[in-house]
Each structure stands twice: as structure tokens, then as C-alpha cells.
Amino acid sequence: MASKLHQMQAKATQVSNYMLKNGSAYYKQLIEKNKQHIRDPPTVETCQNLAKQLFYTRLASIPVRYEAFWKELDYFKHLLKHRHELKIEDAGIAALFGLECFAWFCAGEITGRGFTLTGYHV
């Protein structure tokens, strides 16, 4: 056990030294590569302004998304009315989508219970 701890400490020291030597160059390269996304001046006020713009832009997009939702719902109602025209491929895709939603629900439930299958902590 002590040898594993010593190995981990040595590896951590190695990584720390590497970051100390190359971290600044990596940061500069990253900033240069993504320069088009940086707003000048890069201040707290600019960040707060951008956060407000993002919030209100998303708020303004709600009616468009609401309308798109109702169009999708109308399309689904149309499919239900004309289900005799439904192709097997479309039914398969719908079944796979439903199965995926159920799987994500189950994964969320398991995660919420602390990664236990029964809900009891052992």
C-alpha cells in the first residue's frame, strides 16, 4: 500500500511539474485559438452583460419554441389519426425513441438513489 502511495505522489509531482512548465503556453495557445469568441474588454461587466443577453435571448425564444412544440404535437395527432398509413420503419423509430426515453428515466432513477438498484444503501 505504501508503495502505491509513493507511486501516486511521484506521478502527481510529475504532472504538477509538467503543468508548471507548459501550463502558460497551453493557456496562451487556447486563448489565441479561440480569439474570435472573446469580447473586449474582458471584464466582469462584459461577462455580466453577456449573461443578461443570453438570458433574455432565451426568454425571447420561448414563443418560437412553444409554436414548434404545438406543430410537433399536431403532426403526432395526424399520425395517430392516419396510423393505418404508418410504415414499419416509422413505428420502429418511434419504439426505439420510447425505449431510449425509458432507459434515460431508469438511469436517472438509479442515479437519484445513489447508484443502487433497490433503493437501499448497503
UniProtKB/TrEMBL annotation:
Major localization class: mitochondrion
Protein family membership: Belongs to the ATPase g subunit family.
Compartments it resides in: Mitochondrion membrane
Top-level lineage group: Eukaryota
Biological processes, Gene Ontology terms: proton motive force-driven ATP synthesis
A Pfam family hit: ATP-synt_G
Residue spans crossing the bilayer: none
Annotated GO MF terms: proton transmembrane transporter activity
Source organism of the structure: Olea europaea subsp. europaea
InterPro entries, sorted: ATP_synth_F0_gsu_mt
Protein name per UniProt: ATPase, F0 complex, subunit G, mitochondrial
Keyword list, A-Z: ATP synthesis, CF(0), Hydrogen ion transport, Ion transport, Membrane, Mitochondrion, Transport
A single Gene Ontology CC term: proton-transporting ATP synthase complex
